[in-house]
Amino acid sequence: MFRLLFRPNYTIDTIYHLDPNKLKEMGIKAVFSDLDNTLLAWNIKDSSEEMAKFNQKLAQAGIELIVISNNNEQRVGQALDPFKIKFWAKARKPLPIGINHALKHYHLKQDQVLMVGDQLITDMQAGNLAGVKTVLVKPLVETDKWNTRINRFFEKIIFFFLNLKKKVVFKESLEWMKN
Ligand SMILES: [Mg+2]
Which NCBIfam families would you find in this protein's record (predicted)? Predict the structure, then answer.
């Protein structure tokens, strides 16, 4: 149970290396993504250009980018509205509530969606509970906000218990997590 909760299905070094054509082959219709440290570096104000380009690249392949964030609408909207990127705010990760709502709202099936994030405890757990495919990425910046630092502490313990240290390798392409 513990394993299934936190374990990502895939790993990749950064969300920006996801290949829209490959996702299409996998039958993916939407990429659900965490915001802080997955799409945007939380401490850098203008890291949004790459995000906008990535959104366009996905859109050209017919894939939607939908941000799943625990932040409120105002904060998330501020970052995403200028680029017309869709989002689901107050998602309450690690609970699957936000993801489930977004699935329903956008008429998506579980197997058509990747949940991408940089944290096992929030992003991977929420994605796994919602039954979508999960992708762990390396945090965009090494430092974290204080509340994330607490999660990271527990994450280290989970990494140890799941014996993930050797298994999680972040490459430039989507890697299936071996057992
Ligand atoms: Mg994050």
Answer: HAD-SF-IIIA, YqeG_hyp_ppase
Number of domains in the chain: 1
Task: Give the pLDDT confidence of 33-54 residue by residue, as tens digits.
Answer: 999 999 998 767 667 889 999 9
Distance (angstroms) between ligand 1 centre and the Cα of 20 equals 22
CA of 119 to the centre of ligand 1 (A): 6
Where does the chain have alpha helices with state H?
2-6, 20-25, 48-60, 73-80, 97-105, 125-130, 146-161
Rounded distance from Cα 70 to ligand 1 centre (Å): 10
Q: Give the Cα separation of 30 and 154 in Å (integer).
A: 29
38 Cα to the center of ligand 1, angstroms = 5
pLDDT in tens, 83-139: 999 999 999 999 999 999 999 999 999 999 999 999 999 999 999 999 999 999 999
Q: Is residue 175 part of a domain?
A: no
